[in-house]
Amino acid sequence: MKYAIRSYGCQMNFAEAEEIRQYLQSVGAKETDNYQLADWLFVLTCTVRQHAEDRAWGFLKSLRSWKQEKNNRCLVVGGCLVSQSAHLIKSRLPYIDILVPASENIVWADRLKKILLNSSPICPPPLKSTHQSVIISYGCSNFCSYCIVPFVRGPERCRPAGEILSQIQKLLQSGVKKITLLGQNVNSYFDNSLDFADLLKKIDNLSGDFTFTFLTSHPRDMNEKIISTLAGLKKWSGELHLPLQSGSDRILKLMNRGYTYQQYCSIVRAIRRQRPDICLSTDLIVGFPGETEEDFCQTKKAISELNFQHFYAFKYSPRPPARSASLTDDVPDKIKEERLAEVLQSQRPGQQ
Question: Which of 42, 211, 307, 321 is paired with 175 by a 20 to 30 Å CA distance?
Fold first, then answer.
């Protein structure tokens, strides 16, 4: 059996793609980069941003002929688009065989065992990469006004710490040298009485020659315990992705981010005092409803003041049923494009 995987959007989808890959290789399936040669095709979709959703829809629509060429082909579609629009997908694209919503707690190996019926793992396949991701939580309960994630991935659910540590140990034994912990908001991780800072300490204490990092962090939950813990970690890589989204307090409030620009700056200063070597990155949104030229200038000022090593910038697009979709999208698309281009051009060489 030959299979192919196509992933769109966030790191969570790429981590789940790796879970699929590991299981299928363990039962003797062979991966192909050319989906036209595949018997099974897995498409992991994203709907967090309009561009990613449009790309996913376009690819899925193009697969009708792929399905019709051979009767035994199977098309499996997962991710946020399935959570949001399963009925629409079924009606528009009836040739899709299996839909897997992102809101489910997906353990792909278990699901694939059921799909493939009597298949069972033969042996763990060799890892192609020394860098692997480990999901520590699913979903999100923050409800930032622009974000659809809580609606399509559901409320936050944290994996048991023991399960996470066991997975990491197995990866280290197989030769992995770098681990990335994944969650929509890793800072709010909680398992009984164990919080994110406690989990970081336990990972740092694992034996082996490795480094680890984590994403994504929410500034509101970057508390003193986490900051002081970061200072003592020996195996943390020093990479910190801390989304700011806007330098304007007015826009941050409309976004329901739960902090001001100065509070964000205080967090960054506190972390840099503890770990001057951190590599700080962020996310920015331009063209949010109501964003004035003054608001935009405050975002540009923030970029200059905070000295990010790199950042990712996006133009706003409404994502129903997220709350901001009910606001008037009053920033013309031409202005959004211009602001996005200006922000991206402000990156120093090496920041991209």
Answer: 42
Q: Tell me the CA distances in angstroms from 132 to 18, 162, 180, one per residue in order.
A: 8, 18, 6
Q: How far is it, in rounded angstroms, from Cα 322 to Cα 107?
A: 27
At the topology level of CATH, where does 2-115 sit?
Rossmann fold (3.40.50)
70: Cα within 13 Å, side-chain hemisphere: 12
Alpha carbon dihedral 41, 171, 231, 306, in 10-degree steps, equals -20
CATH code: domain 241-352 is 3.30.750.200
Token duo for residue 46: 């994203």
Higher pLDDT, 178 or 110: 178
Distance between first and last Cα of the chain: 39
* pTM given for the model: 0.84
Domain 128-237 belongs to what architecture? 2-Layer Sandwich (3.30)
What six digits make up the tokens of 194? Answer: 């164990």
pLDDT per residue as tens digits for the range 46-74: 988 888 999 999 999 999 999 989 888 99
